[in-house]
Design brief:
The complex is a heterodimer of chains A (178) and B (186).
Chain A: H1 2-11, H2 15-22, H3 26-52, E1 53-59, E2 72-76, E3 90-94, E4 100-108, E5 113-117, E6 120-123, E7 126-128, E8 142-146, E9 151-155, E10 164-168, E11 172-176
Antiparallel strand pairs in A: 1-2, 2-11, 3-4, 3-11, 4-9, 5-6, 5-8, 6-7, 9-10
Chain B: H1 2-24, H2 28-43, H3 51-62, E1 65-73, E2 81-84, H4 86-99, E3 104-114, E4 120-130, E5 137-149, E6 152-161, E7 181-184
Parallel strand pairs in B: 1-6
Antiparallel strand pairs in B: 1-2, 3-4, 4-5, 5-6
The chains are: A alpha+beta (178), B alpha+beta (186).
Chain lengths: 178, 186
């Protein structure tokens, strides 16, 4: 009776399916799967999520409504390996390291003269369209500032409530993915 | 199979020996890091601590600073804080304990530079403060300057580093504040 009970579930599957699912030796298959799972975990934890894409949680509202408080996102660390950051890119900016970053949009590129007048972005004296802004705000105001050869000007999309300023290229960790 | 097991055991012994060596003989950078982690722990507190233990912890935290320490903290959204001397640090640590029920301080991403003589160190780090139970966090970049006093590393200067070099505009129509901080989740 006991034999029948134990054999009954196995008998429901054809032999080839059983082999495909759990192998000829289920114990060894389980061990192999466990090792593979650990290797995958280590690969993602210590390589992919460290050197390729950083998973991040957004705190604060300076990029609202483009990015919401408590949202989850990723920073692509390889985005600027062969190209330079562009105007309009949303980037992660490191503090002392990548554990805590600022999330801002690049509006000024190296060598440009940037100004804000009644909330409008002026690059080298010319008004620039900013399609990523959802609504116009009168802030900020900034007298013309010329950026250095390695400097970018960044600001949040929520212009009424965002820090802004110049940053060096080496502070940019990567580009926001989503 | 036996050979592989022997190799694995040998590798484990080598790794354990290396780890043990670093514990017994830490580099000056590691000593400074541990010292600052310990300081962060002493600056943190929770509501379960009693008054006496809180006072002792504040006293202990102050011992990480030199008697003539200069502290200049300017975190967005908070009043600037300038302190001179260990006593003022202790007072502020006590005041924070009386105003907040709990506070967690962390020092992240420490970049330690030891001078060639090995007597002073500069640490660039991100300070993160969270109040357990509340969502908001504060994060700010700092430089901690330390020197060896009687064989112990003590902080003699704390200065705020502006991550964004904000333009100071005379007659600016609005003082901007607030920041979007991203915290790496792994």
């Amino acid at each position: 009776m006991n034999n029948m009970e134990t054999e009954a579930p196995a008998a429901r599957f054809p032999a080839w399916l059983r082999i495909a699912l759990v192998g000829r030796n289920p114990k060894r298959t389980l061990l192999r799967a466990a090792v593979l799972a650990v290797l995958c975990f280590c690969f993602f934890k210590f390589f992919v999520f460290k050197f390729i894409v950083l998973p991040v949680r957004v705190e604060g509202n300076s990029m609202f409504p483009t990015y919401h408080d408590r949202g989850i996102n990723f920073v692509n660390r390889l985005a600027y390996r062969h190209t330079d950051p562009q105007r309009g890119d949303v980037v992660g900016i490191r503090m002392a390291g990548p554990s805590v970053m600022l999330m801002k949009r690049i509006v000024g590129l190296p060598g440009e003269t940037i100004a804000f007048e009644d909330g409008r972005l002026l690059i080298n004296g010319q008004a620039i369209d900013e399609p990523y802004l959802h609504h116009h705000s009168p802030a900020p105001y900034l007298d013309p500032v010329t950026l250095g050869p390695n400097e970018y000007y960044v600001i949040g999309d929520n212009r009424m409530n965002s820090d802004r300023g110049r940053i060096d290229r080496d502070r940019i960790i990567g580009k926001i993915v989503l | 199979m036996k050979r592989i097991a022997q190799i694995l055991v040998l590798a484990a012994i080598v790794v354990a020996a290396c780890w043990f060596w670093t514990v017994l003989f830490p580099t000056p950078e590691a000593v400074v890091r541990n010292r600052l982690h310990s300081l962060a722990k002493n600056l943190s507190f929770n509501s379960q601590s009693g008054m006496i233990s809180q006072a002792l912890a504040a006293q202990k935290a102050a011992d990480y600073f030199t008697p003539d320490v200069d502290v200049d903290v300017n975190v967005a959204g908070y009043d600037p804080l300038t302190l001179h001397g260990r006593d003022e640090v202790q007072q502020i640590a006590m005041a924070a304990r009386s105003r907040l029920s709990s506070l967690k301080i962390e020092f992240l991403d420490m970049n330690v530079t030891i001078d060639p003589g090995g007597q002073t160190a500069k640490v660039n780090l991100t300070g993160k403060a969270t109040i357990p139970g509340q969502r908001d966090i504060s994060a700010q970049e700092f430089n901690f300057l330390l020197k060896k006093v009687d064989g112990k590393w003590q902080v003699y200067k704390v200065e705020t580093v502006k991550t964004l070099s904000e333009e100071k505009v005379p007659g600016a129509r609005r003082q901007l504040s607030g920041k979007n901080t991203m915290v790496v989740t792994t």
